[in-house]
Specification:
By secondary structure, the protein is mainly alpha-helical. The chain has six helices and three strands, in the order ααβααββαα. It is 67% helix and 8% strand. The termini are far apart.
Length: 160
């Protein structure tokens, strides 16, 4: 006869603590897959542009919780490396739209592949059942986080 262990439902604080630790460990693993030639701030810009193609500088600055001049300097450096393209808006010549360049997309694809190799090495030593549980939990987390981020972005756009 098998004995099953009944665990109490984990509280959000406990899950947040463990998730925070996991995120820190991910940073260490991902550090092995260098983000050179971009800084962490520049990487955030690339990731935002990937999901919000053609946003303007002010919207990007708001997304970064930064100022337009600082964000503009970040974009200057990314444009100089060929990762970002600036295009004058067809509806307002004073507005500049930001786009991830083909080179920027290739960089993100390569970075993701390198990061996935680092993660795969850790996941391969986990038992299959725990990997399945992790996958299920992470999918639910991603859905909840994406929903919250999109809701916040929609609210910010309506108030702007």
């Amino acid at each position: 006869m098998a004995v099953s262990i009944i665990r109490p439902r984990p509280q959000p604080d406990e899950v947040a603590r463990v998730t925070s630790t996991a995120a820190e460990l991910l940073e260490v693993l991902w550090g092995r897959a260098s983000t050179a030639p971009v800084s962490a701030s520049q990487l955030r810009v690339l990731l935002i542009l990937e999901h919000h193609e053609g946003i303007n500088l002010r919207t990007l600055a708001d997304s970064l919780a930064s100022t337009p001049p600082s964000t503009s300097r970040l974009c200057d450096r990314l444009q100089a490396t060929g990762f970002v393209d600036r295009v004058v808006s067809p509806s307002d010549r004073r507005e500049v739209r930001l786009h991830l360049s083909d080179r920027g997309r290739a960089f993100l694809d390569d970075l993701r592949q390198r990061r996935q190799r680092e993660l795969r090495a850790v996941l391969e030593v986990m038992p299959a059942a725990q990997r399945a549980a992790l996958l299920e939990g992470l999918e639910a987390f991603c859905d909840a986080a994406a929903g919250q981020i999109h809701h916040e972005a929609d609210s910010a756009a309506r108030s702007a």
